Known about the structure:
Layout: H1 3-18, H2 21-24, H3 31-47, H4 55-67, H5 75-86, H6 89-110, H7 113-124, H8 130-145, H9 148-166, H10 170-187, H11 192-201, H12 205-231, H13 246-260, H14 265-283, H15 288-300, H16 303-321, H17 324-335, H18 339-357, H19 360-377, H20 382-399, H21 404-413, H22 417-420, H23 425-440
Amino acid sequence: MDKRKEVKEKGSFAAKENGSPAAAGDWKALLPIAAFVVMFAGSGIISGDFYMIPTMLVFLIALFIALFQNRELTFTEKLDLCATGAGDSNIVIMCLIYLLAGGFSGIAGAAGGVTSTVNLALSFIPASFAVTGLFLMGCFISMAMGTSVGTVVALTPIAVDISQKTGYLLPLAVGAVMCGAMFGDNLSFISDTTIAAVRTQGCEMRDKFKANFLIVLPAAVLTVLIFYMLTRNSSYAMEEELPYNIVQVLPYLCVLVGALLGINVFALLAGGIVMSAFAGLYTGSLTFAQVFPAIGDGMAGMYEIVIIAILASCISALVQHNGGFEWILSFIHKKMSGYRAAQFGIVLLVCLFDAATANNTIAIVLAGPMAKQISQEYDITPQKSASLLDIFGSVSQGVLPYGAQLLSAARIAGITSIAILPYLYYTFLMAASAVVFILFSSKKKPQKHA
């Protein structure tokens, strides 16, 4: 038998037969994750900057703590466990998708896609729907670009201008941008949170999108109505020209449509990269010599999250072998027993990790393996658990005053992030809609899991 397979089986079956700690679960196995949370959150609280310590360094320290646990295994056997976790097909596929998504974002942005997409959205929003239009533009742009921070940076200056000319509160206008940004952060096919949620739970992006969209649609509709009722008497006119080239927007649109049609994500992103390159060359925004560096720069922007995914999978493999996941399941059995309670357990996991890390992608990567085990235990479908991870990761991140999204919006607008919180209607309604969905959902069919 292969050595790695032997180690893996020893942790999952033999331990149970022998009545070792892994059988009933061992809370001490969760110390590496607890150490990560304490280091990350502690440094942020003390310094006031949650991004002061490099995330990869904190993950590496947590990994070494995990490696020094469980003296029943040799150091080599522990490394074999790490290699097994990092070599999991879902982790490898997730990392490859991250690189392709980064390459697509890099070349599409360099080709002028971001500017054209923003200007196209602005051109089609009636002046009487200024603030409501900011929300709708945020939804469209964040869905197309797959980045909430990028959407906030692109639209917040426009929100400031609208506020000054209409007289509406600046936090209200910026809140509309934030709401739209979190819509796409949750639903976009090329968002790093979506990729993490889908791959850790083992479902298709299209299936997750369908389940996710039905949950958040009521929240989006209500948000449009709220912004419209609050600002229906506004008037606003753009004084500057809004040049755009539909050729530069086409790659985004094609990726969105292709994803909805269920086209393979690798083919989709590779095609998007090629289309963006041709769009840049055709419009003259790129020279041939700039194409490959733009793709490389986009991929380089994903290096950190790729390394984090690998380190997190190594930690998860050790934690699972040592009985950490079994302890969590045991805790849920005692405190939150039942199909709906298990879903709230997944919600609690991702929210706690996001509050500690101020990064919903990292929170989903950390919570994903535990959420998958919970969902298998309680017959929660993969697309439902992926939706819950992504939705509440976005909810938590969207209301964190020290999160990158709110900090970026506040910095650009010249206000505090706390001032924006009361106007994050979509984020709060998304959470409420998801809670209602959990309370009134029922188990479809019992599923057998290996």
